[in-house]
Write a structure and sequence with these properties.
Layout lengths: L18 H21 L7 H6 L6 H12 L2 H14 L5 H4 L1 H18 L5 H8 L2 H35 L3 H19 L1 H31 L4 H12 L4 H14 L25 H18 L1 H8 L4 H17 L1 H4 L1 H8 L10 H7 L3 H9 L4 H37 L5 H28 L3 H27 L5 H22 L1 H5 L17 H22 L33 H22 L1
Helix pairs in contact: 1-9, 1-10, 1-20, 3-10, 3-14, 3-15, 3-20, 4-17, 6-13, 6-15, 7-8, 8-9, 8-20, 8-21, 8-22, 9-10, 9-20, 9-21, 10-11, 10-17, 10-20, 11-17, 13-22, 13-25, 14-20, 15-26, 20-21, 22-23, 22-25, 23-25
Pfam family, one: SSF
Family: Belongs to the sodium:solute symporter (SSF) (TC 2.A.21) family.
GO molecular function, one term: D-glucose:sodium symporter activity
Length: 600
């Protein structure tokens, strides 16, 4: 999830930029503005032009824009830092998305494209009923502003504060306007084409940090020698690394003791791993990945805007390869920095070290990257923020226009009116998000981010469960989905009340039977439990209630087990085959797991 992290440790870093760095940074920003202006200058836009880029995006734009919307400061700051502490296993969140994308490519894209909807809530009405559409649209509006745009703008503002000396309120306003203006002006086409430039800068700039880090480790003997040094240190084959791993393993594996072993190069970690147990790899798609990749409007809107079925599917295959590449940009640098023996690992408690690693990306840029390229990399960091804000802003205004304004106020609104409403809604939503960012910057700090993470337990599992079951089983009706969602929402609230009983209710001592066991405390386990409960309730309800109307379970809305229809759009030649390139991406994912779990 693209939630930015607070960056208190940046204040200790002295960071100076040359004129060439400013040229690179503002040159990138100028290029973005040119693309945003020319892509969005078409007059007399229809609603499809504004909200779905005229359903004209080719596969490479679909894939680039999809991944650009997913990457934020969480990747460049949080993930690199996590790799310093936990090792390669934090890459599982990126590599495992190939599994989620496979479901999207083979199961869900045919329904979503043939239904010709603008929004995911609109699809839920076709499959279930208006109540599910309204609930999902309402939750999406709230979450997009509170849990996505506000925090992402705040995270970007912190970078401006620490690196350029802005005050926090000014930084939030500058980031908000600079990031969102082209989404309001040009709609999805401006966003998607700007994302292509952003992805090019992110990948080229990010890989350069990895290359320079390995060359640095090679100490004059080249990059290959640097790879050897990185592996040697991360395996604990040097005394200081072995001592650090031995001392800190109790903070990484629940129940472990100092001196126990820990493999930093193992992808699939044991179930007692604090951040990345193997269960997260296997089950995360079901309780959160399905919602995030398939029915999350700010992601799936790029797929709905594809030229046709082929470009939608091949776009997600391209996105799979980008996600396979991403750990070499935002995880391997963490392994490199660990091998560089940073000072903060040699002092302070584990929690202090965990906070200090958030500065890893900035420290690597400062120590390894030459002038001009530094400006490019800071531009990539800004691009990660800008692309997320633009995508969420456009999707939120789309949902407001199609699922509220048109549904409740002006069913016969003209295309031009819908575009104007979308632009006005976008401006208002951006203003509210900036206010949320200012609130985060001036009133609250870290604790709110913990609550934002906890929000995912409430809305992701019920929608993931009902959407999956509704696609695969025609017996599920709108009533079943609604009952299951409400029961799961209530259960999720109960879990949080029991988890925070002392803070919320003042219950310091409660009977043992009322206390949550330790394995139910982590967010991932709560999400899995909520998802399983929703599946059971939905299935039981489906068995005892009336079946849905026939128009809700057509072949365009549900999977036909008898015909196994894949929907076409698989490519005309072997070199353009969706099946071939998808298989290569899947085998590559398996290959990376084997490489890091067995070979290295």
């Amino acid at each position: 999830m693209p939630v930015p992290l607070p960056l208190p440790c940046f204040a200790a870093i002295e960071f100076s930029l040359t004129s060439w760095d400013y040229v690179a940074f503002f040159g990138y920003f100028f290029g973005l503005c040119l693309i945003g202006y020319f892509a969005g200058r078409k007059k007399n836009k229809t609603a499809a032009d504004y909200f779905l880029a005229g359903r004209s995006l080719p596969w490479y734009v679909v894939g680039s824009s999809y991944v650009a919307a997913n990457i934020s400061t969480e990747h460049f700051i949080g993930l690199i830092g996590a790799a310093v502490i936990y090792g390669i296993c934090v890459a599982t969140g990126e590599w495992s998305t190939v599994i989620a994308f496979s479901f999207l490519i083979w199961l869900f894209i045919p329904y979503l494209l043939t239904s010709k909807v603008y929004t995911a809530p609109e699809f839920l009405e076709k499959r279930f009923n208006k109540s599910m559409r309204f609930i999902f649209a309402s939750v999406t509006l709230l979450v997009n502003v509170v849990a996505f745009m506000g925090p992402v703008i705040y995270g970007g503002a912190l970078v401006l504060v620490e690196l350029f000396g802005f005050d926090r309120v000014t930084a939030v306003i500058v980031i908000g306007i600079a990031s969102g203006i082209w989404a309001i002006w040009g709609g999805l086409k401006s966003i998607a084409l700007m994302d292509v430039l952003t992805i090019v800068v992110m990948i080229s700039g990010g890989l350069s940090v990895t290359y320079l880090g390995l060359v640095h480790l090679g100490d004059g003997d080249g990059m290959i020698a640097g790879v050897g040094k990185m592996l040697e240190v991360n395996r604990g084959d040097v005394p200081w690394a072995a001592d650090w791993i031995s001392e800190n393993v109790p903070n990484i594996l629940q129940g472990a003791e100092a001196g126990d072993g820990y493999d930093r190069l193992l992808v699939l970690q044991p179930i007692n791993h604090y951040s990345n147990p193997w269960t997260h790899w296997v089950f995360s798609f079901f309780y959160i990945g399905l919602w995030y990749t398939v029915i999350n409007q700010h992601m799936i809107q790029k797929v709905l805007a594809a030229k046709d079925m082929y470009h939608a599917r091949m776009g997600m295959v391209f996105a799979s390869f980008l996600k396979l590449l991403l750990p070499f940009i935002v995880v391997v640098p963490g392994l490199i920095f660990f091998a560089m023996k940073p000072d903060f690992l040699m002092e302070g408690s584990f929690s202090e070290q965990s906070d200090a690693v958030n500065a890893t990306y900035i420290l690597m840029i400062k120590q390894l990257v030459p002038t001009f390229l530094t400006g490019v990399l800071l531009a990539a960091l800004f691009g990660a923020i800008q692309s997320t804000v633009c995508s969420v802003l456009n999707s939120t205004s789309t949902i407001f226009t199609m699922d509220f304004y048109k549904m409740f106020f002006r069913k016969n609104a003209t295309e031009k009116e819908e575009v104007v409403v979308g632009q006005v809604a976008g401006a208002v939503i951006l203003a509210i998000s900036i206010l949320v960012g200012i609130l985060l910057a001036t009133v609250t700090k870290v604790n709110l981010f913990i609550w934002i993470q906890a929000l995912y337990v409430f809305f992701a599992p019920p929608f993931s469960a009902t959407f999956l079951l509704g696609a695969l089983w025609r017996r599920v009706s709108g009533t079943d989905a609604l009952v299951a969602s409400i029961v799961t929402f209530v259960f999720a609230i109960l879990l949080k009340v029991l988890e925070f009983k002392e803070q919320l209710l003042g219950w310091a001592d409660v009977p043992d039977w009322l206390a949550l066991p330790s394995w139910m405390i982590p967010f991932a386990n709560q999400g899995m439990i909520c998802w399983a409960l929703c599946m059971v309730v939905c299935a039981v309800s489906a068995m005892i209630t009336a079946p849905p109307p026939r128009e809700n379970v057509s072949d365009d809305l549900t999977f036909n087990w008898k015909e196994l229809r894949l929907g076409g759009g698989l490519g005309d030649h072997w070199y353009s085959s969706v099946t071939l390139w998808w298989a290569i991406s899947l085998l590559s994912m398996i290959g990376f797991v084997v490489l890091f779990s067995i070979v290295l």
